[in-house]
Design goal:
The chain is built from 13 helices and 16 strands. With 385 residues, the protein is of the alpha/beta class. The chain has a seven-stranded parallel sheet, with helices on both faces. Strands 2-1-3-4-5 form a five-stranded parallel sheet. Strands 14-15-13-16 form a four-stranded antiparallel sheet, with helices on one face.
Length: 385
């Protein structure tokens, strides 16, 4: 029985995909075999020695200490694309919110309460303060063409926008999923020079942190509108507030508001609702559960951010998996052979110097054999399934 710790409220229908005879889920375990998390911060958590995997029910993994997990042979999964439609819908909604001053106008309407029959006249008199442009015919810059960025780009194109997408690492499959009239560039400056709206869908790392800041905002058109549904730190807090005050930026819609941004003219603050739909929460939970189940029961890996993807159909009675530093699958197989253990099927791969290998065998695996495998130079963890 595997104990699965849930650090946030996880969709019950998603968790129901665990085999109840083999998995037990709860929000309190002292030494879980695996963890499912959404937004809970894990950087200060102590990990038990038997922790095998962490699954993030979402795409971003900034709340998980990836390096520490890798050092301890803990596989970290995410669920790319599972919440893409939910985020796409909110981004498209926010294009209109940023343009038409809907939020400010709605708040102003609330102030008219108590004017009785005079409300309609006041509305007609005051509506001119909330005029905003249509998005049709405008240019949208999409920074990042992953699962969400592609959906946003295609939806915006369907609404009559000109779309230019930035992604220096875009795959052929991603390109094929884009409307053929969408321009793809590997130069971020191309977006800044041409866009009326910019929407961010890039991961947060050292090269993207503060990508919307004073220097890049200066390259944009006056009145640029920025949408951030990726990570708050992609936008420099001080610089965006200054740009709003000067008029350089007409609106900033963010799913990650800060204290300084709240109440600032031009900021439309949304309480991290990008993936907050029952459909997205279920999709993410189902994907996380399926990936964890396959890893814990079969040793297969799909959608890991720190281990390579390795899948092998089980063809023998016993399975050995190994987390390694580098590609040492041959050394492990040799050590197995020296212990009289014949490998009948195998698969291995390396990702950023982290190796992972699967070996199927019909032979008995003794404790002595396990210790011998653990002693192979470069082996971090051995598991028998």
């Amino acid at each position: 029985m595997f104990n699965i710790l849930t650090l946030n409220k996880i969709s019950a229908s998603g968790l129901a995909n665990f085999d109840a005879e083999k998995f037990c889920c709860a929000d309190s375990f002292d030494a879980p075999d695996a963890i499912i998390v959404r937004s809970a911060a894990m950087h200060d958590m102590e990990f038990s020695s038997n922790l095998l995997a962490v699954a993030r029910a979402g795409a971003g993994v900034n709340n998980i200490p990836i390096d520490r997990c890798t050092e301890n042979g803990i596989c970290v999964f995410n669920t790319p694309g599972a919440n893409a439609n939910a985020v796409k819908e909110l981004v498209i909604c926010s294009l209109f919110l940023a343009s038409r001053k809907i939020v400010a106008g709605s708040k102003w309407c609330d102030t008219l309460k108590g004017n009785g029959d005079g409300v309609s006249k006041l509305v007609e008199k005051g509506k001119g303060n909330f005029v905003g442009p249509e998005i049709f015919g405008k240019t949208l810059g999409v920074a990042g063409l992953g699962a969400i960025g592609i959906k946003v780009a295609n939806a915006a194109k369907a609404l009559g926008m000109t779309v230019i997408g930035y992604d220096p690492f875009i795959s052929d499959a991603a390109k094929a999923a884009l409307d053929p009239e969408i321009t793809v560039t590997a130069e971020l400056d191309d977006i800044f020079a041409s866009a009326d709206y910019i929407t961010l869908h890039a991961p947060l790392n050292d090269s993207t942190r503060g990508m919307i800041g004073k220097e890049n905002l200066a390259k944009c058109k006056d009145g640029i509108r920025v949408l951030n549904f990726s990570r708050g730190e992609l936008v420099d807090n001080k610089d965006i507030i200054e740009a709003l005050a000067s008029g350089k930026c007409a609106a900033y819609v963010t799913d990650f508001p800060t204290d300084e941004q709240l109440g600032t003219d031009g900021v439309i603050a949304i309480p991290h609702l990008g993936a907050s739909t029952p459909e997205a929460e279920e999709n993410c939970a189902v994907m996380a559960v399926c990936q964890l189940s396959d890893y814990l029961l079969n040793g297969n890996i799909k959608n890991s951010v720190n281990f390579p993807a390795v899948t092998l159909e089980k063809s023998a009675k016993l399975r050995i998996t190994a987390v390694t530093n580098g590609d040492i699958a041959e050394s492990i197989e040799k050590a197995l052979s020296e212990q009289g253990i014949k490998v009948v099927a195998k698969a291995s791969a390396v990702k950023k110097a982290t190796g992972y290998a699967i070996f199927d065998t019909e032979d008995e695996i003794t404790d002595e054999a396990i210790e011998t495998l653990k002693a192979v130079d470069g082996v971090c963890a051995i598991r028998i399934i």
